[in-house]
Amino acid sequence: MFEFIKGTVEFVGPEYIVIENNDIGYQIATPNPFVYSRKIETKVTVYTYHYVREDIMALYGFESREEKRLFTKLLNVSGIGPKGALAILASGEVQQVVNAIENEDEGFLIKFPGVGKKTARQMILDLKGKLQDIVPDYFPNLFNADTLPVHTQDGGEAFEEAVLALKALGYSDKEVKKISPELRKEQLTTDQYIKKALQRLLK
Fold it and tell me: Tell me, what's the pLDDT at 156?
């Protein structure tokens, strides 16, 4: 229904962002909402997927069409819903996920929240050999943080926001607490905390 929404980033939270376009605020769930923290009050394009079921209607958003394609393919796998698909994409490493599926690396896939051996096998069975349209032209949306306005925040606040975002993705208190001491040693933005946490959780 909506291919993309272009507008101003008005709000960033642990589970979603709000994009304002023509005086309408669109609530959009994204894999790592805090990626947009540096873009508050700037115009962005978010590639959207309109998810409709009997009990839910929601917008999911991505930085690239490739991420959106992988999200839609993951939704077709039995046992994976929108929340699980977002958690898989939150690592920001589309190539890594595709490689795991193509190489039948169940050990890597079961590290994602809600993905057990059965679901990992189903992902491989359903998607192996069917992801060529995602990888060839996939280039992560890299940017130099120095060229964008940085909204400074207290390190403790950034860490707490990151914890909320990780829990929203489905990671347990136990998993988050295990990596917290190491992360607390560094002074990072919320987005950086989330990326570092995901790197450790997926090791």
Answer: 80
